[in-house]
Amino acid sequence: MLPEAACGWLEFEMAATTDENPYVLTAERAQAPPVSFRERLKYLGPGLILTASIVGSGELIGTTIFGARAGFVGFWIIIVSCLVKVALQLEFGKYALYTGRSTMATLNGLPGPRLGRGSWAIWIWLLVMLVKLLQVGGIVGGLATLLNIAMPGVPVLWWLAPCVAVIAWIASRGYRTIERGSMILTAIFTIMTLVSLAALQWTPNAVTGPEFLSGLRFELPPEMLFYAWAAFGITGIGGDEILVYNYWLIEKGYAARTGPRDDSPEWTARAKGWIRVMKMDALISMVIYTVVTAAFYLLGAAVLHRLNELPEDKDLLQRLSLLYTETLGPWAKWAYLGGGLAVLASTMLAATGAWSRQFADAAGQFGYINFLDPVQRARAVKFFTWLFPSMWAVMYLIFQNSALMVLVGGAATMAVLFVVVFACIWFRLRTLPPSLKPTRWYDAALIVSIIAILAVGVQALVSSVIRVFG
């Protein structure tokens, strides 16, 4: 159990009855799914929280660095990275809907070796998350850096504590606050990014048709493989975001409205209906983060690569604001800062909500708490909501290199994707109810996703070995 002294002051309002607990399915809360497009829009949200997370470090930092180094030739990597993983997201989401099981309970139920009370999958996840402390620490540092650019009188390190406190306080308010905050910030950075890209077309650095098409030729210089690997792992929906998606689906009520599985015609109809809502949620978010990611990459390729401007990683955000000003005009500094602050704040908000739930869930699997009990879950989530932002700030204090920290975390994310691939194959072949069997087109998309991820992973592993020992 988490100690009362550490958790008592962290309690926040949360329903304490089983009937209102989204992680415990009851027949009384089952609900027919919406059938019209307009009605389904009311249930969007989980995918938009992921979008807020996805378009943070990957786009503003990782994608920009990749575009600066590779130019337009690596554009296809970004597009493939955004499109190819969504089938895995849907397969994982479906499992949450027809079982109601949380992510760590799901990983702990996968076949394979175990160490103590944890499966191999949970231990791999934990190791990767230790590395990803660097990635989110880089995001916190990036947020503080942008605030320093906006108000140079306040040193970067002085911004760390306010950033941590504000984000942790917002995230502690629960799912609805995280969802609304993510939607607002997503709208801001989407508008700012597209405006910047459009304005670029009226400058000497405009993206030409041949340059754009050159990025779709599936070619890549060997020296760009590491950056391509990191970009593939960090752009689009990553393995860690796929794992987190189940929490947002469950807390939005998708699983509770589907109801406990009994394989009746009524349950099957509800499950199919809520799966359609989930697909709409996932596809709309995919369109948003693909467009924004592509825009960030094109800005990096057009502005930085053309000018042969490859600033030191630790100075990247500071240098970017100047380059945007020099190429787009004085107004671009504030567009860049507004969009950048929204991007990194949204990622930190979504990450805080995600990490707190994952580690509370993992604590349940290791027997420290009962994650299905709403009071114990609330205490644990609130505890981790304040713990991890503080740890991220410490990571930045130690390394103080946002770009490098983000790239290392992005590369580590590929390991989680391999776990997700294994889990999705298991779900599809061994646990999916026959009544929910998908179309051949869906299965084909899932197979393509799996092959693409494995191919990139193997190539990345080989190139890394050559890079180290060659």
Care to describe what's here?
Mean pLDDT is 84; it is low at 1-19. The chain has helices at 4-7, 37-41, 46-54, 57-70, 75-84, 86-99, 103-108, 120-150, 160-171, 175-200, 209-214, 225-234, 239-252, 254-258, 265-305, 316-328, 331-365, 374-399, 402-431, 440-469, and strands spanning 114-115, 118-119. By secondary structure, the protein is an all-alpha fold. Helix 6 (86-99) packs antiparallel against helix 15 and helix 8 runs antiparallel to helix 17. The protein has a two-stranded antiparallel sheet. The radius of gyration is 22 Å and the shape is globular. 50% of the residues are buried. The longest helix is centred in the middle third of the chain and has 41 residues, at 265-305. Strand 1 (114-115) and strand 2 (118-119) form a beta hairpin. It is built from 20 helices and two strands.
Q: Per DSSP, what share of the residues sits in E-state strands of 2 or more residues?
A: under 5%
Query: Count the helices. How many?
Result: 20
Q: SSE order, as H and E?
A: HHHHHHHEEHHHHHHHHHHHHH
Number of strands: 2
Give the neighbour order of strands across the main sheet. Answer: 1-2
Proportion of helical residues:
over 70%
Q: In terms of quaternary structure, what is this?
A: single chain
Query: Quick one: biggest sheet?
Result: 2 strands, antiparallel
Rg? 22 Å
How far from one another are the termini?
A: 49 Å
Task: Return residue spans where pLDDT drops below 50 for at least 5 consecutive residues.
Answer: 1-19
Class of secondary structure makeup: mainly alpha
Mean pLDDT: 84
Q: What's the shape?
A: globular
